[in-house]
Amino acid sequence: MTAITRAQLETLLNLQEIEIQKKAVQSILDAVAEKIAALDKELSAFTKTIEKEKQALSALQEQYRELEEQVHVNTALIGKIEEKRRSVKTNREYQSLLKEEEQLRARKSQIEDEMLECMSEMETLGQKISAQEEEHRQLDDQVTSDKKAVTLEASESETRFADLTREVKAVEADLTPELFKAFVNVKKMCPDGKALAPARNSICMGCHMNIPPQTYNELQRFDSLKLCPFCNRILYWDNA
Ligand SMILES: [Zn+2]
What we know:
Layout: H1 6-87, H2 91-172, H3 177-188, E1 196-200, E2 203-204, H4 213-219, E3 226-227, E4 234-237
Parallel strand pairs: 1-4
Antiparallel strand pairs: 1-2, 3-4
């Protein structure tokens, strides 16, 4: 039988209250960590999007340079044919060169159209990237200031958590190790942290079952620790 005094029961109730507050503060701290992680994730996803657009732009620039090179080659070939044409002997040869030149000119004009198209795509993409970079800067500023706010919130909660932890230690000193152990064991089974249940009019307020009359009578004497036979919570007499 674990002995308990009325004062120790008050201490246990106090301890339970502090533990519940600690749990609430801990959930604030967890939420802060989650918020910061979500902000970082959003920013990093956006950074990746812009990175991809920049890669696409560089591919277009490369394509443009290749087309430009093709135009140079083409222009040189046309120049050579023009020269040849001036020195040919037969009309047949002349016609053949003329035909070749026409084909080269057609190809050149096709490449130049592709270059225009490519240039227009680069311009559109370039503008898109500039707009996204501006948006990214704004988001970055927003994230920085949001982080500051949540970090401040966290630091207040951390202080509160440390205070509550000290309070637990102070309160624990009033309990016997046996009582404290009993409290901790019961608490493990109670997800809401409420290891103590008031007994009113012979009913356990934790599970609303009828407490055996002998247990209920003994409770009023505050001499030993009593657990509810149904929910195992620590019972205390409460005639309020
Ligand atoms: Zn109960």
